[in-house]
Amino acid sequence: MSTQREAAGPIPSPHPPGEIDGSGEMRADVRRGRDESVPVRPAALAVYLMCGPETPALAEAAVDGGADLVELGFPFSDPLADGPVIRRAAERALSQGMRTAACLECLAETRTRLPHTPLVPMTYASLLEAHGWERFADDAQAAGATSLIVADLPAGERPGLRRVQLVAPTSTDQRIRLAAESTDGWLYLVTLTGTTGARDALSPALAGLVDRARATTELPLYAGFGISTPEHARAAAALADGIVVGSRAVEVAEDGPGALAEYVRSLRDALDTA
Known about the structure:
Elements: E1 44-50, H1 55-65, E2 69-73, H2 84-95, H3 100-113, E3 119-123, H4 125-131, H5 133-143, E4 149-150, E5 163-167, H6 173-182, E6 183-190, H7 205-214, E7 221-224, H8 230-237, E8 242-245, H9 247-253, H10 257-272
Parallel strand pairs: 1-2, 1-8, 2-3, 3-4, 5-6, 6-7, 7-8
Helix pairs in contact: 1-3, 1-10, 3-5, 4-5, 8-10
């Protein structure tokens, strides 16, 4: 049974599960204080997992290890933003029959196991187009999604679909401002150009991206892409309010829930001591 911890960082979404379509007015205060007299909480830790039959148990293990948020990948046959690890995981998931309906069932089972953990489906616009934009939002809401990430849907398009926005080192200041104005609770900073995947070192572009984003918004900034080791986590936490770990988590998850919990715990320890 999962022993959920209090989230280490700011609550990642301003909406409770079920308010992801932009129709609700409820918003929570997710701004991270800048008053140095206020103790700073450790950075938030988000873990990405590909939807599959074993994913609910893996998500529970990730939270047991210290994850504050779980992203659930809905596999797509042509994932432009993803590197070889997540591409292979998507291919495996599709071969297991993990189409949209099955992924929504996976989300619902994960929500049953983790009633208090933010769960954020991450996918591509073509899946929402095929399923129906409003229908997808409604079905994800019913299954327990806290928010959505649509990797290839630029800020400004489909404004009624409330989601976490992504910005990259190549984003203009205007694009960062637009994304920050419409994002759902936190801003996802893509630390590098190119696809997902583990790297030897943290991207040097992150610091500049954080500075430009902080000049635009007080919302929490979570850094992802290329973060895989405790050293990466600690370095990213010195700049951002949280981190997202994907490819390495997917790799470790192949060895089962115990291995994943241990890996996530190593990241959590690094963040707690950053």
